[in-house]
Amino acid sequence: MSGAQKIAVTVTAVVPLNDLVTRFEFRRTDGGLLPTFSGGAHTVVEMRDGDTPRMNPYSLMSDPMDQTSYAISVRRDDVGRGGSLFMHNNVAVGDEMVISNPVNLFSLDLRAKKQLFIAGGIGITPFLAQIKQMERLGGRWELHYTCRCEALGSYVDELTTQHPNEANVYYDDQDQRIDLKALLDGQPIGTHIYVCGPKGMIDWVRNTAAAEGWPREGIHYEEFLAPQSGKPFEVKLAISNKVIQVGEQESLLEAIERSGVDAPYLCRGGACGQCETRVIDYTGNFIHRDHWLDDAEHASGEKIMPCVSRFEGKTLVLDR
Amino acid sequence: MSKFEFPTSIISRPVYGTLEPRDGSAHLMIADATGAQAILDVATPDMMAKAHIIYIPKGAEFGDRLRALNPAQYYEGPSYAAAEQRIAKAFGDAKMGLQVYLSGSEGVMGQAQHAAMQAGVPHTAIQTEHRGSTARRMQCVHCKGITEDVATDPFQCSHCGLHLFVRDHYSRRLAAYQGVNIDAEDPGNVPEAKGIYE
Q1: Among the listed ranges A146-155, A223-232, B120-129, which one has the minimum average pLDDT value?
Q2: Is A218 touching B (CB cutoff 8 A)?
Q3: Is residue A109 part of a domain?
Q4: Domain coverage including residue A252
Q5: If A280 and its partner were Cys, which of A102, A262, A317, B83 is the partner (CB 3.0–4.6 Å)?
Q6: A212 interfaces chain B, CB cutoff of 8 Å
Q7: Which ranges of A110-240 would DSSP assign to H, the alpha helix?
Q8: Does residue A242 share a domain with residue A199?
Q9: Are residues A217 and B91, on separate chains, in Cβ contact within 8 Å?
Q10: Which residues from chain A sit within 8 angstroms of residue B94, using beta carbons?
Q11: Which CATH number fits the domain that encloses residue A240?
Q12: pLDDT per residue as tens digits for the range A240-276
């Protein structure tokens, strides 16, 4: 079976934080201990939404050394494919669920002399775990966190109370903005940047830092893409000798799994590279959405990331 | 001046490039001997206004030309060891946006790279350009003593006296290649020493 090892868990708390964000806490159903993890790790939560299986990655936000429980915070996306809505509307205390072992694609570089965290909205979640890790290690860190408004400022109170000198919060509706150039100017050598938030924010931070002469090795970012719906298409899986239909609302990876073919995956968000699949033949156009393959690979027509990318055309034959 | 082409080797062996100007808030340039030529090639007036050059001539005569570039700070000293305090201070005070340029011998570039890494500069973000001597800084893996400017293979450890095979196995942490006893199994059977690249 593909993906990280699975853990059977029971929901122990469902805590609405504001209009959009709810925290879910899990313990192992068998009463045992959960694995420790490192700040920035995510878990893939499996949902049984009627006949539709859903597997969404969420950053772990609890203390990485706390083996008794895990916590995630889920932002409701009313126009998404329904995973977050399912969590908000259908998951209750006492429910049994399956989650994956933690996987970290956004870990701290502990060679850094200082960690500079930049979060936008729900992008705060990996930093909550990383901050706990840094506090334990006694390292230098600083957080700059933008929220739409005070009412949607998840965990702002906790952060500013516990870390008044490190946590800086900016509210969009009060016209507060991160003065990024000034923030980057004068940071001590060995500072690493971590940014998690909307794509525009990630690009802004990466481009500004590069223009100021920061090395790319010191700029870390995480953006999970949710698969997007699109026109249905047909795919031939050459190794399995199957022809499958990818529905409007499902991803190519989900369609492959639904047909009973075991395909590799980890993040299901276009980031980790695990599901990379070779294209044997095609007539049509790829709709590449991942940020794993580079532009040349996207243009080559030789590879596809089935977790987030789609296809429009007559024929697609995959080496799977 | 033509540059020495190092033969292709194992992945551990450092590979050097050609210095290129980069945008940055400050520029720290460390060179020895004919490594000065690489700085002369890359220098621009804009860069020099924010540059700190640390130069170890080792008998080469580029000091006047480097000074004439009019860098914001200039230091010249007789050895890497003599410059070490200044290099540590330069990295200690540095801010992000600093660009690091190293040129000259492998030994000086390796030690300066180590100092930069200690300060938190990713080693892949440091520019290097080899010029001049191909002699190596070697560590005897047996006694751990380091010998500078090793030009022959095998060579005799200047600390413990063992005859050592010069490997391409390099340690960024030690800024040194590894030398391994060549006659451990057949004491006294030491091949005649020749130049490392002969």
Answers
A1: A223-232
A2: yes
A3: no
A4: 233-318
A5: A317
A6: yes
A7: 125-137, 156-162, 180-184, 199-211
A8: no
A9: no
A10: 188-189
A11: 3.10.20.30
A12: 999 999 999 899 999 999 999 999 999 898 988 999 9
